[in-house]
Amino acid sequence: MATYNSVLIRKWGVTIVILAAFGIVLADEGLNKIFAARAEVEFHRAQIEFQSNTNVSATAWEFARACFEFNDFVTNNTGRAELANQGIAACRQLLARESNSAPGHYYLAVELGMLADTKRNMAAFKMVKEMEREFKIAGDLDEHFDYAGPERGLGLLYRDAPGWPVSIGSRHKARQWLERAAKLAPDYPENHLNLVESYLQWHDQTSASRELETLDILWPAARTNLTGEAWERSWDDWSARREVARKNLKETAVPAKPPKSSR
After folding, report:
1. Is residue 84 part of a domain?
2. Which residues contact 100 (CB under 8 A, 6 or more apart)?
3. What pLDDT digit, counting tens, does each position of 181-208 carry?
4. In a domain, 139, yes or no
5. Among 4, 19, 7, which residue's Cα sits nearest to residue 116?
6. Domain count of the fold of the chain
7. CATH of the domain at 215
8. Domain range spanning residue 20?
9. What is the SS3 string spanning the chain?
10. Does residue 1 form part of some domain?
11. Fewer Cβ in 10 A, N or C end of the chain?
12. Structure pTM?
């Protein structure tokens, strides 16, 4: 089942964390309530399914994914940490049986990010390296999983983590992995949006403009292919972010110089 499986980097101080989507901007509070209710229903469904079939691989990582998605709507650290720990436990249980499970490694990285966000201390820094390792393992096992999710996760991790010697942040690595994600899953809007936003962050307006044009071209087909209730939150997020990026590009465009007088 398709879900809004994009990856978020939420920054605070000098620590980073992976969550459910990148900078979600909702059109209105009514939509937010609808999305929250759906995420809660899916969480409980996946939890029951996992508890009834703990030895079935898909139920483990789908439950971890549900924890990951519902986390975005929980407002207190205690609840968010509990969700993260449930997801981590499900992934570790899966990987103890199947060490070659790409979804298991992928969602373990994501859940570690969720947990890190509730700590906001040195313990969170230690999780960054484990997140990096788990994303890389997931990518080695299945680079196409979640529309190049492991590559996307690594790119965002390198982009927003503090640089050396504090952490693993690297603009070069971020660009390398984000561009790789876009090549592996070129029809997935999230991958191109991440590049547009990253280029703008790096003050590379030319690349940002080019990537936005690419996104505009693929947009109608993606709208046709990624449909249904499960994709509504993604489209709400992507649409808002695309317009913000377009506005930022216009505001940062260098005004054309007036022609020289012939006199």
Report:
1. yes
2. 141
3. 999 999 999 999 999 999 999 999 999 9
4. yes
5. 19
6. 1
7. 1.25.40.10
8. 8-252
9. CCCCCCCEEEEECCEEEEECCCCCCCCCHHHHHHHHHHHHHHHHHHHHHHHHCCCCHHHHHHHHHHHHHHHHHCCCHHHHHHHHHHHHHHHHHHHHHCCCCHHHHHHHHHHHHHHHHHHCCHHHHHHHHHHHHHHHHHHHHCCCHHHHHHHHHHHHHHHHCCECCCCCECHHHHHHHHHHHHHHCCCCHHHHHHHHHHHHHCCCHHHHHHHHHHHHHHHHHHHHHCCCHHHHHHHHHHHHHHHHHHHHHHHHCCCCCCCCCCC
10. no
11. C
12. 0.85
Look up residue 174 and give its two tokens.
């971020």
Does residue 263 form part of some domain?
no
Looking at residue 257, what is its pLDDT? 57
pLDDT for 187: 97
Give the tens place of pLDDT for each residue, 119-175. 766 777 788 999 999 999 999 999 999 999 999 999 999 998 889 888 899 999 999
